[in-house]
Specification:
By secondary structure, the chain is an alpha/beta fold. It has helices spanning about 20-25, 45-50, 65-75, 95-105, 125-145, 160-165, 175-185, 210-230, and strands at about 5-10, 30-35, 55, 80-85, 110-115, 155-160, 190-195. Strands 3-2-1-4-6-5-7 form a 7-stranded mixed beta sheet, sandwiched between helices. The longest helix has 19 residues, at about 210-230.
Amino acid sequence: MQPRIAVIIPALNEEIALPRVLADLPQTLIAEVVVVDNGSSDQTAAVARAKGATVLSEPRRGYGWACLAAIAYLKAKAPDIVVFLDADYSDYPDELPAVIAPIVTGAYDLVIGSRTKGKAEAGALLPQARFGNALATQLIRWLYGFTYSDLGPFRAVRFSALLELGMADRTYGWTVEMQIKAVRRGLRITEVPVRYRKRASGESKVSGTLKGTVLAGAKILWTVFRYARTSP
């Protein structure tokens, strides 16, 4: 039996890129696409609805806020697997089958799409993003004993396992919180290489600005050290 797969796409002012993301998803594998409009001032919500996605509104800005809203919505739907994907078309949505495959086979609970193991287009991963990823993953290895190569946003997780993690971060610490909690809870984790390209339009809301880079970096490091001081 084919697993029920839901795709969560947090989106903030991505009316240009989002239709391309939705068009490239392998629709035959997906039960539902949930786009969370994170306070957009453009037509992000409208273009998502036009493409057949379920649209939720979460006006509180923050990647974690958007993801938490989608998870709350999906609890009643109880999908088998949830895939997280960015709305800026920097990921390759057609690689979804490769990202979910280790979970579909029953071998793993969490799969991280690794941009560093895959092929990143020149200029897609900015130096500050590469440095931040390298630092965070090295700290995770030292503090938690697990080796990741990336904090990539393109990822898949068994929904029941995701609920057990008790995700709480509301902003920039979401991805690293998930990866740390997965290690501490004993989830079966693997990475698959994924491609990565420059976003379809505009600048990254995180690594594309000094403010975003500083805030994200500080929150990621705070999250890494925070969980080292608490029991699983």
